[in-house]
Amino acid sequence: MLISNEWLKDYVDAGVSVEDLAERITRTGIEVDDMVDYTKDIKNLVVGYVQSKEKHPDADKLNICQVDIGEEEAVQIVCGAPNVDAGQHVIVAKVGGRLPGGIKIKRAKLRGERSEGMICSLQEIGISSNVVPKAYENGIFVFPTEVEPGTDALTALYLNDQVMEFDLTPNRADALSMVGTAYEVAALYQTEMAKPETQSNETSESASNELSVTIDNPEKVPYYSARVVKNVTIAPSPIWMQARLIKAGIRPINNVVDISNYVLLEYGQPLHMFDQDHIGSKEIVVRQAKDKETMSTLDNTERTLVDTDIVISNGKEPIALAGVMGGDFSEVTEQTTNVVVEGAIFDPVSIRHTSRRLNLRSESSSRFEKGIATEFVDEAVDRACYLLQTYASGEVLQDRVASGDLGSFVTPIDITAEKVNKTIGFELSSDEIKAIFEQLGFETQQNGKTLTVNVPSRRKDITIKEDLIEEVARIYGYDEIPSSLPVFGEVTSGELTDRQHKTRTVKETLEGAGLNQAITYSLVSKDHAKDFALQERPTISLLMPMSEAHSTLRQSLLPHLIEAAAYNVARKNKDVRLYEVGRVFFGNGEGELPDEVEYLSGILTGEYVVNTWQGKKEEIDFFIAKGVVDRVAEKLNLEFSYKAGEINGLHPGRTAIISLEGKEIGFIGELHPQVAADNDLKRTYVFELNYDAIMQVAVGYINYEPIPRFPGVTRDIALEVNSDVPSSELKQIIHDNGEDILQSTLVFDVYEGEHLEEGKKSVAIRLNYLDTEDTLTDERVSKVHDKVLEALQAQGATIR
Question: Between 552 and which of 64, 156, 384, 529 could a Cys-Cys bridge form, CB atoms 3.0 to 4.6 Å apart?
């Protein structure tokens, strides 16, 4: 919304500079996005009177003009404008003057004739071409009335002005009008505001004899009214009105059309003016359009309507598309003499749908979409009638032809000073708060401690007590909110939680191992939502997904990590090591919120050691991936156990299920060759852990022990067992029987083949014994070692 400071002063004068006004308005919630100063870069611009015009002897398109600019003698100016003529009052830039764009006016000779100044068009003094009146679009501007030569031209054009551009939020539709802005300024500066004149000298004839109004769809059109103005004279609107429209970004047309646009800007109430003699009947019927019904709008375009559109009809055919655009055959033209002025309330949603569907966005539709003030509907129509009477010589018929109900103009809300002060921190009395509301134009009654505030319809953003409290804070001043230090009772030092500390440790560990963190979407396609899922649970799908590829909440982090790896490999980055900490989602049935579980997942492919100067190149394999997972467990002082398993999408012989304290919490394995091939990947290894389950294990503090002072003893054993017996099971038996001197075990060799029966394998395990308090004796070690061997043999192992 463009707010002219010159125009605003008609209603309220704050007595401050426009810069201070813009600053104050911005600080109270309406941002002044820009300031347009029409006096900027302009110097020595006056009104001139063209005394005579002669053709230039040496140029067909140039004229020599003698121009009175208020000095002792007229000056000679050579002008090429096609519409320049004697007897005109024009804009003149004097010698020594300046125009926008850095243009300096100097004495010059044009084809041998001296020229002392320049007769200007509106475009040359900074007015945009799209708002210049058609009559002056290709020539100089001519004042419609006499102006004293030598008068400051910007003052005569009402351009000695600065215009504020409001960047409004959708809730502040009240500031889409000059009157609404005046209420705001009056409240900010605690001054009175004047309303525009609306009272006409009505004739004895009644508008009800000329017109009738019927509403067929009151749920979409709560109220519709019309007044009739007879015998209008179509002519240019007064210069002050044209200037104000231009500054608001609207091109002046003629007095009748300009008055409609002027009142729109003044009250924020869109009006429409029909040529009464071309409506086609004496009745106006407001209804829903018929499906496939057509009408021709003001832009000479035939529109095909749908049954959700609202139309104004003459009882038979549409004459206007409600709230959007009028019809071409009932528009105001140069021959119009009788005018019907429409004021109405239309359903905002319907107007929005119609304007979007037809791509017809206008000043009117934008205001109807945001909701208009019911209190201004009839007042705006009356204002238009007054202006038509004053500037178009119209005769205003008495009475208003209306149908429907405007409803209440106010919304009462009860509030107390205690509530306001407690919320904001002020110490205002009830009288001070009441004064703020009344300054905003809200009638307020006080009953004991309760204030009943009648919020006018123009402020549709105020519906609850908290909205009123915000108004008090805005008007009294956000800067006046008292500042105080917080009261510290029990003060705790800032520190990371246990989970935060562990998470940082995990990330440092993984990144130290060469992995990079990835962040992927929580949504996947429905076909991949259950890929690699650790639980068989329902999935959660979006009702209105943006695409099929992002329609369902994931149950594993791996599908998108695989996509990320494939994306990198396709772009020649073949060595990919990624990890992600993120949430997965498991459904609990219809109507129930899903369970959100945090997972830790990773993917590795390509070479682990890629630089030959660091050593031999080494491709990533299962044990490198397992080493990364073991490193995480070691840093968290946890012990994972592994056993062979199968997961859909992973290689059936190269997959291990990971357990913690007897509960399965994840897996590690190689992608199934078919999955890898589908994604153009070579051998690729992945892991996925239930991170929430890991974090729930209480570890406590890690106590470091001194290096033992006593030597240890190492014994190696070779066991022949069935091929399907996992090494972890053998190690568990050893640890269960190794008493307190068994420190660790290590599988250092596994052999299958020649010299062994089919279905058998040999597993070589190194056992490390140590007593931290005393020197081990051979007798004690042998006693424990024999116990271990007996336990192994009891489980079917043969000592080789």
Answer: 529
Is 531 within any annotated ligand binding site?
A: no
Q: Give me the residues paired with residue 607 across strands.
A: 619
List beta partners, residue 162. Answer: 37
Strand order in the sheet with 31-37: 2-4, 162-167, 31-37
Q: Work out the widest C-alpha separation in the chain, in whole angstroms.
A: 134
Q: Kindly provide the b/e burial profile for residues 90-114, where b requires at least 16 CB atoms within 10 angstroms of the residue's own CB.
A: bbbbbbebebeeeeebeeeebeebe
Q: Taking Cα atoms as reference points, which of 235, 230, 264, 254 lies closest to residue 339?
A: 230
- Residue 280 — pLDDT band, cuts 50, 70, 90? confident
Is 379 annotated to bind a ligand? Reply is no
Report whether 470 belongs to an annotated binding site: yes
Instruction: Specify whether the CB–CB gap between 377 and 456 falls below 8 A.
Output: no
Helix (H, G, I), strand (E, B) or coil at 741: helix
**Distance from the Cα of residue 638 to its chain's centroid:** 46
Contact 117, 92 (CB under 8 A): yes
Decide if 655 contacts 644 (C-beta within 8 A).
Answer: yes
**Distance between CA atoms of residues 414 and 614, nearest Å:** 78
Query: Would you state the torsion angle of the CA atoms of residues 33, 35, 36, 37, taken in this order, to the nearest 10 degrees?
Result: 180
Annotated binding residue 592: no
The β-bridge relationship of strands 283-288 and 212-215 is parallel
Burial, 487: exposed, middle or buried (Cβ in 10 Å; 0-12, 13-18, 19+)? exposed
Give every CB contact of residue 107 below 8 A, 6+ residues apart in sequence: 95, 114, 115, 116
Label residue 493 exposed, middle or buried (CB < 10 Å: 0-12, 13-18, 19+).
exposed
Query: Which amino acid appears at position 189 of this protein?
Result: Y
126 in Cβ contact with 100 (< 8 Å): yes
- In the chain, how many H helices and how many E strands? 19, 41
Q: Residues near 334 by Cβ (< 8 Å), separated by ≥ 6?
A: 234, 254
Which whole-number Å values give the CA distances from 361 to 177, 183, 325, 367, in the listed order? 18, 27, 9, 10
Which amino acid is residue 385, in one-letter code?
C
Cα dihedral 274, 276, 278, 284 sign:
positive
Task: Name the nearest CA neighbour of 344 among 376, 387, 316, 370.
Answer: 376
| Percentage helix, strand, coil for the chain under 3-state DSSP, each rounded to 5 | 30, 30, 40
Total number of residues shown for the chain = 800
pLDDT digits (tens, 9 = 90+) for 677-709: 999 999 999 999 999 999 998 876 667 778 888
User: What does each C-alpha distance from 413 to 424, 452, 454, 462, 476 come to in angstroms?
Assistant: 18, 6, 6, 9, 20
**pLDDT of 512 higher than 70:** yes
- Is the Cβ–Cβ distance between 762 and 750 less than 8 Å? yes
Each residue's pLDDT tens digit, 591-642: 888 999 999 999 999 998 766 666 677 899 999 999 999 999 999 989 898 8
pLDDT of residue 615: 66
**3-state SS, residue 243:** helix
Query: Using an 8 Å Cβ cutoff, are 154 and 92 in contact?
Result: no
Q: Which H/E stretch holds residue 126?
A: none
The candidate with the shortest Cα–Cα distance to 259, out of 92, 79, 401, 394, is 394
3-state secondary structure of 527: helix
